[in-house]
Amino acid sequence: MISFAASVPVPRRRRRAPAVAVVLALVLLASGATAGLLWAGQIPGATAIPVFDAPPGADDGILVTSVSILDIDEPAISRLDPTLRDAVGQAADAAADDGIVMEITSGWRSARYQQLMLDEAITTYGSAAEASRWVASPETSAHVSGRAVDVGPLDAQFWMMEHGARWGLCQIYANERWHYELATTPGGMCPDQRMDAAG
Length: 199
Ligand SMILES: [Zn+2]
Fold this sequence. Notes:
Structural class: alpha+beta
Number of helices: 6
Number of strands: 4
Largest sheet: 4 strands, antiparallel
CATH topology of the largest domain: Muramoyl-pentapeptide Carboxypeptidase, domain 2
Bound molecules: zinc ion
Number of domains: 2
Strand order of the largest sheet: 1-2-4-3
Distance between the termini: 87 Å
């Protein structure tokens, strides 16, 4: 009796398969081992990886999506300075009257969240000096002290440029049209913008 299996060159294929599997396993083992070493920071000369007891989340002020200034269930909103929150709330109401929906893309942030952002910016921009133009340190960030909000989308940013000072809300950095702080009296003049967070 001749079976179908015997009519095809199975033995030849079977001999090759283990060899391929062994090579694959070795490659996976090697890459896995390397990743493991990197994570543990055991490669000589590797910079230390910051240790978090838990991944940063909502309690650090991370917003998965933009929210309303009224969304006080979010620590990013509830831990803002109340005077700033009230001013932004009034501005958002007035913007709504003009048909603009103002959203908050970032508010209060924990120090470790800010540090994480700074670390990522250093990786992105390639140097601490360039990163500091975009992301402040935990010690200096107005987000960490609850005195800054980032607003969006674009039409709300333009609306705030035009009207924010009515509530004392000012754009602080020329390169961050989304970032607002209380920087003048309601109806006053905003101070000259700084070029960037490093300036
Ligand atoms: Zn900001």
